Amino acid sequence: MSEKKITIHDFSEHLFWDVDKNTLDLEKHKRYVIKYVIMYGMYPDWKKLEALYGLDSIAEIAENLRELDIKTASYIALLSDKDIQKFSCYTSKQSNPQHWV
Q1: Residues sharing a CB contact under 8 Å with residue 34, sequence separation 6 or more, in sequence order
Q2: Fewer CB under 10 Å: which end of the chain, C or N?
Q3: CA-to-CA distance for 43 and 16, rounded, in angstroms?
Q4: Is 64 within 8 Å of 57 (Cβ atoms)?
Q5: pLDDT digits (tens, 9 = 90+) for 9-19
């Protein structure tokens, strides 16, 4: 029995609201897909992302996302056994946070 190939349409409907899903190429737009899934996706989206790209690839891209929240970065760092201090979002914190933060 062969596994079903994961497509962009397998992810939650609310993801990728700002683009035409039919134009997204999962390899060509890998960084974009990973960013949106880890920032806005739900757990089933995470599992699909992990099956599609693998944890090492996800962690490598997540390390360079400055806008990633610390909780998500911590989760990925824990799973991938990476140092949280190597994540861009950890090292480039806002110097003057907004009053509501």
Answers
A1: 49, 53, 57, 58, 61, 62
A2: N
A3: 16
A4: no
A5: 999 999 998 89
Collapsed DSSP state (helix, strand, coil) of residue 37: helix
Structure tokens at 39: 């920032």
3 state SS of 31: helix
Q: Which helix (H) or strand (E) segment is 24 a member of?
A: none
C-alpha closest to that of 14 among 34, 46, 35, 42: 42
CA distances from 36 to 15, 71, 72 (A): 7, 15, 12
CA distance 10 to 66: 27
The pTM (predicted TM-score) of the whole model is: 0.82
Q: What is the largest CA-CA distance in the chain?
A: 55
CA pseudo-torsion sign 22, 28, 34, 36: negative
Chain segment 53-90, per-residue pLDDT in tens: 999 999 999 999 988 888 999 999 999 999 988 888 87
Backbone angles phi, psi at 75, to 5 degrees: -60, -45
